[in-house]
């Protein structure tokens, strides 16, 4: 085991340090003068430091100077190209989320009849269309891509409407009818969470 050689070396080191200390106290010259420092505790002097900031030439100073944004001329003249300005390719489809309007509510039924009548409607995607896992999350996969049963909050993603145009997608998404079953409790404030003892679980930590 590595601990046995270490302890032997440690004992030898302590013994040699003690021997050096005794020699120094008796003013013996049997040891080299460079080894004298090990006989006494090291007294670390107070450290000092100073910061030197070079003076910036007036031509390079930016504080108080009006600087032009790199794309300022393009944005001011309307020539800047954004994502919405990119021409759509042939057969491009557009999507819009269908979001929950209720917190802590079970999804009982989805009616897409009215949405499907919108010109350009192509499909409605839900959790049943996800081929792999419906779970996602940056650290812990504790969120659903699409709500499968209970919407935890307002704005939870229930589905995705796909249409031939962006306008049609948003219109169809607003026409999806959702039947909810409201669950209790509905927690909207910190005080509500404390009253119902609704807390996060154990903190995520690294363990050896």
Helix-strand layout with pairing:
Elements (H helix, E strand, L loop, with lengths): L2 H23 L46 H6 L16 E6 L5 E7 L1 H4 L4 E5 L9 E2 L6 E2 L5 E2 L5 E7 L2 H10 L1 E6 L7 H6 L13
Antiparallel strand pairs: 1-7, 2-6, 2-8, 3-7, 4-5
Q: Which sequence of strands runs across the widest sheet?
A: 1-7-3
Determine the number of helices (DSSP H or I, runs of at least 4 residues): 5
Distance between the termini: 22 Å
Structural class: alpha+beta
- Stated plainly, the CATH topology of one domain is called Aldehyde Oxidoreductase, domain 3
Q: What is the string of SSEs from the N terminus onward?
A: HHEEHEEEEEHEH
- Tell me roughly what share of residues is in helical segments: 10-25%
In words, what does this structure look like?
- The protein has 208 residues and is α+β, with helices and mostly antiparallel strands.
- It is built from 5 helices and 8 strands.
- The strands form 3 sheets. Strands 1-7-3 form a 3-stranded antiparallel β-sheet, with helices on one face.
- β4 and β5 form a beta hairpin.
- It is elongated.
Summed up:
With 208 residues, the protein is of the alpha+beta class. The protein is built from 5 helices and 8 strands; from the N terminus they run ααββαβββββαβα.
Search tags:
24% helix, Aldehyde Oxidoreductase, domain 3, 5 helices, 18% strand, three-stranded antiparallel sheet, single chain, 208 residues, alpha+beta
């Amino acid at each position: 085991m590595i601990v046995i050689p270490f302890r032997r070396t440690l004992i030898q080191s302590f013994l040699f340090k003690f021997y050096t200390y005794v020699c120094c106290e008796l003013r013996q010259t049997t040891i080299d003068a460079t080894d004298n420092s090990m006989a006494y505790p090291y007294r670390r002097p107070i450290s000092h430091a100073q910061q030197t900031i070079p003076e910036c030439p007036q031509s390079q100073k930016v504080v108080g100077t009006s600087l032009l944004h790199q794309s300022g001329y393009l944005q001011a003249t309307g020539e800047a190209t954004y994502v919405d300005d990119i021409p759509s390719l042939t057969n491009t489809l557009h999507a819009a989320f269908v979001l929950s309007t209720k917190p802590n509510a079970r999804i009982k039924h989805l009616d897409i009849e009215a949405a499907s009548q919108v010109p350009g409607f192509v499909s409605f995607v839900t959790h049943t269309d996800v081929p792999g896992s419906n779970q996602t999350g940056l650290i812990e996969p504790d969120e659903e891509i699409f709500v499968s049963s209970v919407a935890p909050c307002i704005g939870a993603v229930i589905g995705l409407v796909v249409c031939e145009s962006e306008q049609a997608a948003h219109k169809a998404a607003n026409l999806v009818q959702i039947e909810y079953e409201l669950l209790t409790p509905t927690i909207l404030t910190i005080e509500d969470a404390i009253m119902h003892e609704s807390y996060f679980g154990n903190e995520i930590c690294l363990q050896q």
